[in-house]
């Protein structure tokens, strides 16, 4: 019993005819090097290792975990008696001068004379309220003082 198909294959069979590399050669495509597979595998492994290392470093050294060196801020409040401001008077009666000093410098003026309406003052002054009152005391001959409110 003769099988025609087996006979056909047996007559035309050549060793190595059906190897993958030979097939690539017949198609005009260069065969894939076995080393190329290893290079791709090595590149993938290196990427995985670098990603894992970066993740570990990120988790370990996050900025949240680093103690921040903060310096306490010292806020110095300036006493109203030490504030330097400018103030002007033009033929103003003493009660108006005192009200303006108390408003501008946020202080309380004590020792006002019994009849302050008798005094008038023209002055441009830039400085502290304590110095201003001492200048006014020298000019008018009064004994006023300044205190914080």
Q: What does this entry look like structurally?
A:
- With 149 residues, this protein is α+β, with helices and mostly antiparallel strands.
- The protein is 46% helix and 17% strand.
- The protein has 5 helices and 4 strands; from the N terminus they run αααβαββαβ.
- The strands form 2 sheets. Strands 1-3 form a two-stranded antiparallel ribbon. A two-stranded antiparallel ribbon has the order 2-4.
- It starts with a helix and ends with a strand.
Topology:
Blueprint: H1 4-12, H2 20-27, H3 34-60, E1 85-93, H4 94-105, E2 107-110, E3 120-127, H5 129-140, E4 145-148
Antiparallel strand pairs: 1-3, 2-4
Task: Please sum up the structure shown.
The chain has 149 residues and is an alpha+beta fold. It is built from 5 helices and 4 strands, in the order H-H-H-E-H-E-E-H-E.
By DSSP, the count of extended strands is 4
Q: Helix tally?
A: 5
Tell me the major beta sheet. Answer: 2 strands, antiparallel
Based on Cα principal axes, name the global outline: rod-shaped
Tell me the β content. Answer: 15-25%
How large, in whole angstroms, is the Cα Rg?
A: 50 Å
Any low-confidence stretches, pLDDT <50, length ≥5? none
Strand order of the largest sheet: 1-3
Helix content: 40-55%
Overall average pLDDT: 83
- State the separation between the terminal residues, measured CA to CA: 129 Å
Output the structural class.
Answer: alpha+beta
H/E order of the elements? HHHEHEEHE
